[in-house]
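Reading a protein record of the kind used here takes little practice once its layout is understood. Each number in the token line that follows is a code from a learned vocabulary of backbone shapes. One such record is shown here in full, so that the layout can be seen directly:
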Amino acid sequence: MGIISWIIFGLVAGVFAKFLMPGDDPGGFIKTTGLGIIGALVGGFIGTRIGFGDVTGFNIRSFAIAIAGALLVLWGYRKIKSS
């Protein structure tokens, strides 16, 4: 269930990240959800590596990690684009 769950989490996390960090992003919904998927994968990787435990299935902890990763990637994307 690993990568498939992170893709699904990423779609939802991208929407949540956009809601939590509103702003004028070029690319709109498609790019935001793509960044959400990337962020969920990054969040899952980092969360597992720093000791939050294995990220498995659909649960609140995994969803929080996915949203945190999506926020991190969205923030980084905005910083790169504003330069």
